[in-house]
Automatic annotation (TrEMBL):
It comes from the Bacteria. InterPro entries: Glyco_trans_1, Glyco_trans_4-like_N, Glycosyltransferase_grp1. This is Glycosyltransferase. PANTHER family: SULFOQUINOVOSYL TRANSFERASE SQD2. It comes from Oscillibacter valericigenes. It holds the Pfam family Glycos_transf_1. Residues 148-276 form the Glycosyl transferase family domain. Residues 44-138 form the Glycosyltransferase subfamily 4-like N-terminal domain.
Length: 346
């Protein structure tokens, strides 16, 4: 049974978690030995990852031609809010739109039990599975050489303390709280990795970024190799997002064994426990305390709870769970198997 990963809109999302999720699906399917089709015509299952108009039309075309459609629900109304200018006003309309998109799937897959509950509350009347986006735990892993590379690149000595965060420059990602945290800890170096078109950055965020504390660097977008160096080289990862459906950056940080500071929000309940190199907080005072505690440790927990959480979500395991979902929802009849064998023989 072959799978076609619909690429529409990838250029728009390639620097986001959705873009990474699509790449992860490619690697997970390969690890599970599931063939990837080069066109929709060749594929028996079509994966849709975006909610742009072309994606909805692609899902409709796939269904009209007898393909099975797996719609990935990466977005919710809740994580659309507090993002780009006008997003709060548009959120109810966005909810109606994504509900229409997801209903086009024969199966809906979303990253966590939390986002699955939201979709069921929306009234999605299709089978909804929670399945992590996964993380490449071979690529993202603790490495002393990568730590040195990061610290040399940014002029950090071993005595310097550095905190990093990753994401779009929007309120929902907690950037205002991150700037405030940097201001409270002038003796620590802070870095924010990520880029957002200026027209999409909310006014409050633009104002705060225009006058940052001296110890905060907005380093812009960096590639995966340099990002891996940052996870390995920093002393803590502070991800203060108000809402997520999972958080691929969190998985990457956990995989690299870096101490992680998170906002205590529902999406992490049940799979990211506090302790052993993981801190959760709800407000500025809590973030300041958590950062102080994380930076006070002399050794990083490279093989602690965080790394184990990531290994449970490695891409090979994601591929196996995808294959099990296909077998459950799209059982292959004997006649279909015979046809496939005939094509191979011919």
């Amino acid at each position: 049974m072959s799978v076609y990963l619909y690429p529409g809109g990838f250029r728009l999302v390639c620097r986001s978690g959705i873009g990474q999720a699509l790449l992860h699906q490619r690697r997970a399917l390969a690890a599970a030995g599931i063939p990837l089709a080069q066109s929709m015509r060749e594929g028996q299952i079509v994966h849709i990852n975006t909610v742009f108009p072309d994606a909805l039309l692609a899902a409709l075309a796939a269904r009209l031609t007898g393909k099975r459609v797996v719609y990935y629900a990466h977005s919710t109304m809740e994580d659309f809010r507090r993002s780009f200018p006008g997003s709060n006003w548009l959120a109810p309309l966005f909810k109606r739109w994504i509900r229409l998109c997801y209903q086009m799937g024969d199966v809906v897959i979303t990253p966590t039990d939390y986002s699955r509950r939201l979709l069921l509350e929306y009234g999605i009347r299709k089978p909804v599975y929670s399945l992590t986006n996964g993380v490449d735990t071979d690529f993202f892993s603790p490495d002393a050489a990568r730590r040195r590379a990061f610290r040399e690149r940014y002029g950090l000595s071993e005595e310097d303390r550095a905190v990093i965060s990753v994401g779009h420059m929007i309120e929902r990602k907690g950037i205002l709280d991150y700037i405030a945290l940097a201001r409270q800890m002038p003796q620590v170096r802070f870095y924010w990795f990520g880029d957002t078109p200026a027209c999409l950055i909310p006014r409050a965020v633009r104002r705060a970024m225009a006058a940052p504390p001296d110890n905060l660097c907005f380093a812009g977008y960096i590639g995966q190799k340099e990002l891996r160096d940052a996870y390995c080289g920093a002393d803590a990862f502070a991800f203060l997002s108000y809402e997520e459906t999972e958080g691929i950056a969190v998985l990457e940080a956990l995989a690299c064994g870096i101490p992680v500071i998170l906002r205590d929000i529902p999406v992490y309940q049940g799979w990211i426990p506090e302790g052993d190199g993981i801190w959760k907080a709800r407000d500025a005072a809590g973030f300041r305390q958590a950062a102080g505690d994380a930076l006070a440790g002399s050794l990083r927990e490279t093989e602690g709870t965080g790394r184990r959480i990531a290994l449970d979500r490695r891409l090979a395991a994601v591929g196996q769970r995808l294959a099990a979902t296909y077998q459950k929802e799209f059982p292959v009849s004997r006649s279909e198997t015979d046809c496939e064998n005939e094509e191979v023989i011919s």
